[in-house]
Design goal:
Helices cover about 35% and strands about 25% of the residues. With about 500 residues, it is of the alpha/beta class.
Length: about 500
């Protein structure tokens, strides 16, 4: 046996431990449940199908709409993104989904951005990229280059995850995953504030206040005290090469469910109860729709919705000894208002709207403004003749704010409007409301996807977590422990074929 393993080890084929042989003719799981049909849950169903094969039944529970925080609202028969909207060109899982699902890219329509401090624009994008670079250089000196190099280095390390996952490696915690990508430096970045990290890097306070802080406000509705890791993800998303899904990002979710041949059960999971212990425990899910309660037993469960108390998923965990710990921290409120109307350009210092050149307005922190950002937005289906509305025309705008806009606030931002549609999101973690990262393994066969959001919340992060959990569940079921939390993966994937 020992010699046998030795041979395996040095030919770099997956090493098997003794228990694997006992398990080899063991049965595969017969039923798997995923709770939540956002991008996290639907991607998990897809990856579970890939790894566990065609026989296992996969049920996906959704109490609301498929897509979760990917959603659209309709204005004049056109749909607009109200939740997660932007995808980075290096988000490889999202790219893969688009291709496998036969969906199309929706490129962003050009438009200029400016930063508003409550009184005036302090930074304005021009037509000429070189001029912008020159201005940035003039205003902030070396900060801009330092920042770019910092973000690029982090992205490069983060991209290792795709290689590790392609080789089948899984991680039993968010810490292990981050550590394998960027060592203790990555873990530290989830604990230190962005501002501290950037100041240490030599980025100027002015640059932080005038550029970094507005980006954090538009992406996460929070200030520069958020952890450096999510800050870096957010800054990567502020670079060029962004896209979205034609027809709406939520299409990825519904199509993934179909591709996975998963059963969508439109029902709210109210309890998950441990039914039998032993090597392969089982769990009973009780769910309720239209006052009808139904229960069913599963071998593996993936919880793909935030479990923080203020999110109020309505799931109670029963029969676990000791009780499952409550998830500390809370989710951050961000309100997305989709407004059809005339922007009040006077408010921004442009009495003549014809001269107003910007399509996106970011804001600084100092101003204590009632909104985080305001932008003219494009529908999810763009026809070939599409052009952005000019500021003197009625257009569709998205305003992010920490609270629902009051009538007088709407009347400050808009000269007049036809409609306002409000989506009040618990959008992403309220960073800093807890220290440490939530667990991935809740019990032998029960997993939690959304802990990854405390490192950074984005569609791609949920997709990375989905692939990880599918691999983790598969290896744990088959007792292939050498595929979990392996050290020195950089070296291993280089030498494996
Ligand atoms: C306003 C806003 C802007 C954003 N912008 C971006 C962006 O530009 N780019 C980006 O990458 N990300 C962005 N994000 C973040 C991104 O949308 C999320 O990280 C991602 O969509 C989370 O997906 P998820 O599947 O993990 O969770 P969710 O989408 O929240 O899915 C969880 C699902 O579980 C369901 N559920 C909950 N409890 C139960 C229950 N008891 N029974 C059954 N079902 C249940 C919920 O109804 C929900 O559908 C943004 C988010 C918001 C809100
Ligand atoms: C991360 O923090 C720990 C503890 O403070 C420290 O020992 C380690 O050197 C840090 N890692 C990096 C890469 O800075
Ligand atoms: C950032 O916001 C938090 C509350 O969310 C607050 O406690 C903190 O003081 C703010 N930091 C700065 C630098 O404004
Ligand atoms: C929008 O785009 C999606 C995806 O390409 C397509 O399925 C849908 O029919 C389009 N809708 C309209 C109204 O054109
Ligand atoms: C528009 O902004 C100006 C300048 O701040 C303000 O006086 C006015 O009341 C705002 N609203 C309308 C409807 O013009």
């Amino acid at each position: 046996m020992r010699q046998f393993m030795y041979v395996f080890l040095f030919s770099f084929v997956h090493v098997l431990s003794e228990s694997d042989f006992a398990k080899f003719d063991g049965a595969p799981p017969s039923k798997i449940a995923v709770v939540g049909a956002g991008i996290g849950g639907t991607a998990t169903a897809h990856f579970l199908r890939q790894h566990f094969g065609p026989e296992v039944r996969i049920d996906v529970f959704e109490k609301n709409s498929v897509g979760g925080r990917l959603a659209t609202v309709s204005v004049n028969n056109q749909e607009y993104e109200s939740g997660g909207s932007i995808i980075h060109s290096l988000n490889l899982h999202m790219q893969d989904f688009i291709q496998q699902l036969g969906l199309k890219y929706r490129k962003s329509v050009a438009g200029k951005t400016a930063v508003f401090n409550g009184e005036e624009f302090i930074l304005e994008e021009t037509d000429w990229y070189l001029l912008d670079l020159f201005r940035l250089w003039w205003r902030y000196g070396i900060s801009f280059i330092r920042l770019q190099m910092w973000v690029e280095e982090i992205m490069e390390k983060f991209m290792r995850i795709y290689k590790y996952q392609a080789h089948g490696y899984a991680f039993s915690s968010v810490e292990e995953l981050l550590h394998s990508l960027g060592g203790s430096g990555f873990i530290n970045m989830t604990r230190r504030s962005l501002s501290e990290s950037l100041l240490e890097l030599g980025v100027s306070q002015r640059f932080i206040d005038e550029i970094i802080s507005p980006i954090m406000r538009v992406n996460y509705g929070q200030n520069i005290s958020i952890p450096a890791f999510v800050g870096a993800v957010s800054l990567a998303g502020a670079q060029a090469n962004l896209w979205a899904v034609e027809g709406g990002n939520k299409l990825v979710c519904s199509r993934l469910l179909k591709l996975a041949k998963a059963n969508l059960i439109q029902s709210q999971v109210t309890s998950i109860e441990l039914r039998s212990m032993g090597d392969y425990p089982q769990y009973e899910i009780t769910h309720s729709s239209q006052d009808k309660k139904t229960s069913e037993v599963y071998d593996i469960i993936v919880v793909a919705t935030p479990l923080q108390q203020n999110v109020d998923t309505g799931i109670s965990f029963q029969g676990f000894e000791p009780d499952l710990p409550e998830m500390p921290g809370s989710y951050h409120q961000t309100v997305a208002s989709i407004i059809h109307g005339y922007l009040n350009c006077s408010y921004f210092g442009y009495p003549d709207p014809k001269l107003f050149p910007f399509s996106s307005i970011l804001t600084t922190d100092a101003s204590e403004l009632f909104f985080n950002s305001a932008a003219s937005i494009c529908p999810v289906n763009i026809t070939s003749g599409f052009r952005r509305k000019q500021p003197q025309e009625a257009g569709v705008y998205k305003v992010f704010s920490p609270k629902p806009l009051e009538k007088n606030e709407l009347k400050t931002l808009f000269k007049s409007y036809y409609s306002v549609q409000v989506t009040d999101w618990l959008a992403y973690p309220h960073y800093g409301s807890t220290q440490g990262l939530p667990p991935v393994v809740l019990h032998d066969g029960m997993y939690y996807l959304n802990g990854i959001e405390w490192a950074a919340s984005a569609m791609e992060m949920s997709s990375v977590a989905a692939k990880n959990i599918a691999l983790l569940a598969y290896h744990r079921w088959n007792r292939q422990l050498e595929m979990i939390d392996q050290k020195d993966l950089m070296h291993k994937v280089k030498t494996e074929l």
